[in-house]
């Protein structure tokens, strides 16, 4: 029996949660000898903000890539907005979007040209109004006709966020959304994400190394280590379980293998 | 672009969006525009003078006026057609934009169709001035070939797209480390497609290989037209049939390579 067969023979998270924004069920990704993601399952309700935490190589990016359909799982299932990925991706790709440091916007195109192209790809109605609103909301107006390659890191991040919001996605996947931003701009981006989630009842899955960001934004945290889920709960509950006052301390406990001892001591 | 189906719900709107993206890119960069004109012009001037020199010293070439310069123009349709396709694809790799496209509702077939349209646009920018140069400098009017020119053009552009689709799939799967294939693969066809000489020059066993390549039919057809003043419809139909097979095979290979890239996680790296 293959891993796929085993996964399909038991009741699945995806089966139980057809209305979930994301349902990941016994997901495994093996690259040659490496198990990048090792049998993880979780379900994200619609309207939630969840943080995906873990050190480098923990499997966060591979997990997000499998949710997006960019990487095929070795076994297990992913369901997004009620549709199986990647088989039914055509039904959901227009309703989700993402931002990641692994991709860029074309450098020679101006901000307006980039947003126009992506707006058309996502079949956004009243596109010029939508671009004007995003430009106002994300403070892009001063450089909207400047080439993307001539922007500062902070400006590029805001443009990438504008692209991620161009289709008013129901589901937003963010990989390090505030990396390379100064504290003021990062705080401003976080406030915008909170507002977007509240106003649109959107679901956000956020991979980050910034623990303060996760504490502030997320109502749930999934901690990954070596491809497995190490913990999964509300930030306050996790901190209490590890007897810590910040997620950063929890992260260090998990990364340095002190997790079990700390949890025992807390009990 | 994770939906691997070829035919379901093709959107002209999304194809138009991609063409707009490449059009913005072309207009934003004068070196890109100049490069489109530079090499074809250099080719036609060099080969045009060579043709003049040979024609003055060999009675056969005097009779068969235009075969060399005609071959150069048709070769450029084949070569530039493939480059026009592949460079637009490479622009996405260089810009690290492929992930954005893959995550958008754009389907692979729409992406490929937009690259085909861009290859025609880039080809027009490069080759039309080239044909005018040939007319004014060497009095060779490629448009005087008439309707057969359309048959030659279609067969050559179909082959260029097949090669373009296949090499784009290879780069997608293997990253920019495979970029050199884009620039060199077509040159492997050059001696076998008998661009500048008839198929009969080749050893018999190699002639079978040559006749498996659609461009061979176009170049043989052009020589038949210029030397014997005969349009070989049979050659064009055979080329069209092989091109249909090649295009289908290249689509299949692209989708297989895209699937393999997703299995191996290559779409996340995209680099070397």
Question: Mind explaining what this structure looks like?
Answer:
- The complex is a heterodimer of chains A (267) and B (272).
- Chain A has helices spanning 3-9, 13-16, 60-68, 111-121, 127-137, 153-165, 183-200, 211-217, 235-241, 247-255, 259-266, and strands at residues 22-31, 34-44, 49-53, 75-80, 83-85, 96-99, 171-175, 203-207, 220-225, 228-233.
- With 267 residues, chain A is α/β, with parallel strands linked by helices.
- Chain A has a single domain (3-233), classed as P-loop containing nucleotide triphosphate hydrolases (Rossmann fold, 3-Layer(aba) Sandwich).
- In chain A, the strands form two sheets. A six-stranded mixed sheet of chain A has the order 6-7-8-3-9-10, sandwiched between helices.
- In chain A, strand 7, helix 7 and strand 8 (203-207) form a beta-alpha-beta unit.
- The longest helix of chain A has 18 residues, at 183-200.
- The radius of gyration of chain A is 19 Å and the shape is globular.
- The relative contact order of chain A is 0.15.
- Residues 1-17 of chain A have low confidence and may be disordered.
- Chain B is mostly helical and 272 residues long.
- In chain B, 77% of the residues lie in helices and 0% in strands.
- Chain B is built from twelve helices and no strands.
- The longest helix of chain B is centred in the last third of the chain and has 32 residues, at 233-264.
- The two termini of chain B are 22 Å apart.
- Chains A and B meet through helix 3, strand 6 and helix 4 of A and helix 1, helix 5 and helix 11 of B.
């Amino acid at each position: 029996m293959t891993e796929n067969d085993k996964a399909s023979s038991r009741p699945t998270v995806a089966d139980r949660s057809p209305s979930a924004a994301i349902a990941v069920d016994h997901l495994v990704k093996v690259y040659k000898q490496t198990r990048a993601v090792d049998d993880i399952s979780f379900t994200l309700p619609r309207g939630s903000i969840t943080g995906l935490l873990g050190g480098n190589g923990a499997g966060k990016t591979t997990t997000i890539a499998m949710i997006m359909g960019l990487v095929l799982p070795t076994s297990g299932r992913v369901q997004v907005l009620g549709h199986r990925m990647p088989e039914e991706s055509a039904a959901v790709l227009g309703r989700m979007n993402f931002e990641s440091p692994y991709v860029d916007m074309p450098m020679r195109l101006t901000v307006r040209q980039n947003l126009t192209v992506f707006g058309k790809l996502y079949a956004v109605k009243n596109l010029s109004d939508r671009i004007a609103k995003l430009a106002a909301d994300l403070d892009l107006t001063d450089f909207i006709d400047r080439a993307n390659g001539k922007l500062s890191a902070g400006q590029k991040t805001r443009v990438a966020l504008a692209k991620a919001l161009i289709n008013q996605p129901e589901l937003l996947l963010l990989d390090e959304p505030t990396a390379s931003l100064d504290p003021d701009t990062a705080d401003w981006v976080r406030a915008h994400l909170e507002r977007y989630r509240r106003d649109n009842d959107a679901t956000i899955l956020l991979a980050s190394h910034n623990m303060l960001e996760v504490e502030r934004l997320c109502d749930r945290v999934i901690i990954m280590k070596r491809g497995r889920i190490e913990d999964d709960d509300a930030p306050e509950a996790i901190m209490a379980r590890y007897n810590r006052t910040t997620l950063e301390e929890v992260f260090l406990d998990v990364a340095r293998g002190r997790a079990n001892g700390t949890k025992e001591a807390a009990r | 672009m994770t939906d691997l189906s070829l035919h379901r719900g093709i959107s002209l709107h999304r194809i138009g969006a991609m063409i707009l993206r490449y059009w913005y890119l072309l207009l934003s960069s004068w070196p890109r525009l100049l490069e489109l004109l530079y090499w074809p012009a250099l080719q036609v001037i060099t080969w045009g003078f060579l043709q003049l020199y040979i024609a003055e010293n060999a009675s056969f070439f005097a009779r068969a006026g235009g075969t060399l310069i005609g071959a150069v123009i048709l070769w450029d349709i084949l070569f530039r057609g493939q480059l026009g396709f592949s460079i637009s694809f490479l622009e996405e790799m260089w810009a690290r934009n492929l992930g954005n496209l893959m995550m958008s509702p754009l389907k692979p077939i729409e992406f490929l169709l937009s690259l085909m349209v861009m290859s025609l646009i880039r080809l027009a920018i490069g080759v039309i001035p080239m044909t005018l140069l040939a007319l004014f400098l060497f009095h060779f009017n490629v448009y005087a070939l008439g309707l057969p020119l359309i048959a030659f053009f279609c067969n050559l552009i179909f082959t260029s797209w097949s090669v373009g689709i296949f090499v784009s799939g290879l780069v997608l799967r293997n990253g920019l480390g495979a970029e050199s294939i884009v620039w060199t693969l077509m040159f492997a066809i050059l001696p076998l497609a008998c661009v500048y000489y008839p198929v009969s020059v080749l050893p018999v066993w190699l002639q079978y290989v040559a006749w498996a390549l659609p461009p061979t039919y176009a170049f043989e057809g052009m020589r038949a037209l210029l030397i014997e003043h005969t349009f070989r419809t049979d050659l064009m139909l055979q080329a069209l049939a092989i091109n249909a097979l090649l295009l289908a095979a290249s689509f299949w290979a692209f989708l297989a390579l895209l699937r393999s890239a997703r299995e191996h996680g290559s779409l996340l790296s995209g680099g070397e």
